[in-house]
Each structure stands twice: as structure tokens, then as C-alpha cells.
Amino acid sequence: MNGDDGFTLPELLIAIVISSLLISVMSAVLIMSLKTNDKTSQRLYESHDAQVSANTYDRDAQSSDTVAFADADAVCNLAVSDGGYSLVLSFQWTEASATPPNDVYIADYLVQTRSGQQPALHRRLCKKPGGGSTLLQRDVIISDNLATSGSTAVTCDTMPCPSKPKTVALQVTEKSGYTFTMSAQRRPT
Description:
Blueprint: H1 9-63, E1 66-68, E2 85-95, E3 103-112, E4 120-128, E5 135-143, E6 152-156, E7 167-173, E8 179-185
Antiparallel strand pairs: 1-2, 2-3, 3-4, 4-5, 6-7, 7-8
């Protein structure tokens, strides 16, 4: 600046060039951080599915008297009445009730095929009070973004899985390719 005359043309041009460089660099940084944030959010979402399912899966496997790949109960196993579901795994156990007979619990893991959406893995917990009629206790979606084919696999310590295996593992693959395995040991009976 020369006296009170204002800015010269070269000074204005230099200021504009420097400002445009700073804005383009800041824009690139902002775009990169937004892309990273999306990837991080997806990973957190996937790991949340794994954490929630591992907690319930452990309890189901440890409590189970039997492990099965079929369940004729239409309340808990929606695959019996709805072709959009397929049973992956079924745990069943008995708990003592205040008045006999004892309560029977069933935890079914089912894959739901949904039109226009990715398949979902459900855990349905049912109770038969005193061995009577089945009541749905809970239906939780463990993963709602499964890979379309081969998204779940069950393995036991001995194959084929017996009705009372020592260890049962359920492997789940999500659409993004993220795979997690829930493994638990049954309590000795």
C-alpha cells in the first residue's frame, strides 16, 4: 500500500491467488475428512453388530441343553410359516420355575430375506411357561446388512454338529465384507 491511495493491482492479484490456494487446500481437507468419517461410521456400525450379538449368543449357547438346525415351533421359528425366513441355528434349554413344570426357552437365529434390502439376521427368544404355549419374548435384529449369499455359517467342535456339541460357532458376513464369528462353549450337563 502506498500512502492513502488504496491497494495496487499487483497486491490485489497476489491476495486473490493466495486466497484461492488456501480455499482449495481447505476444501480438499474437508472432503477427505468427510470421506474418512463415512468409513469410520460404517466400521463402528459393523462392530456394534458384532458386540451386541456376541453378548446374547454366549448366553444362549452356554444355557442350551440342545443345539439344532430345525425347530417346529412356528412362533419362534418364522421359517415354519413364512418363506422369507430360514433357520440357521436353534438353542433350547429348561429353567426351573417357581411352580413345576419348568419353563422351556428357545433362541432361534434366522436369516430374513427382504425385498429390495439386504438380508437380516434375527435372534428370536421364546418361552414356553411350564412347557405350555410358546410366547415370543424378544425379536432382535443382530445384523441388518448381510451379504446376499453365504452370509452365515455354523461350525461345531465335531462335524457334523451333534445335538450337544461342546463348542458352537456362528460366522456372519456383512455386505461390506466385514466378517465376525461368535463362538461359545456349552456348559457341561
